[in-house]
Predict the 3D structure of the following.
Amino acid sequence: MAGKPVIEIKGLSYRYERETVLDNITLTVPENAFLGVVGPNGSGKSTLMKLILGLLKPQHGEIYLFGQEIRRFKNWEKVGYVSQKANSFNTGFPATVFEVVSSGLTKKMGLFKFLKKEDKNKVSKALESVGMLEFSFKNIGELSGGQQQRVFIARALVSDPELLILDEPTVGVDAHNVNSFYQMLGDLNKNRGITLLMVTHDIGTVSDKVTHVACLNKTLHFHGNTEEFEQLERNGLSEIYGHEVHLLDHHHEHEHGGVTR
């Protein structure tokens, strides 16, 4: 892979009491990559994400962000994170879309500070980049799950991160809008040059939209570009997942991408 590494993971292992959830993971994510991390439930995806975000400390091995060992890394404004908020968000929360996104600036501004014109422009730019500018003054609770998730992405983007980490971003997004949602993420990667790391169960979409794929099931079974990933035989994927993988396409009804059991 070309490009300066944004994330470097070397020999990473992690255990919860007696259970090993990550075993000797070595992985590099270069700048401007869009990496999809796939794997079955319990494969260690969430633990890996928490380690990269600094929420857990490595037990064995090393993690580097932007060339700096994670224990000494301080520039967290370079890292944006979007969780599965749309699936559990309190729809009665009394805030406008604009207010939710502007709250992403509180680290830089401090709480209860008035927005300057420059800050308001940043909020509008972030909303425009996710196709939600026209909803700026709607209450967040009035939006669909997919629209809410776009707003949370705008909130992460407003502080101009260089790395954006997304945890199952299509949770709460209806099937009809999933493809346009992934198209929006692809545009952020290509047009804004943001490195994306996305945890997903959606195998079919990763081969359509991302630049690289990592297949995780406690160990790293595969890491490469999408062309190499598409050459994996179905038997190879089934072995990684521990059950038969059935592929579905978002665009057509014939078999092609996605996972069902």
Notes: The domain at 5-241 is CATH 3.40.50.300 (Rossmann fold). The longest helix spans residues 178-191. The two ends are 33 Å apart (CA to CA). The chain has nine helices and ten strands.
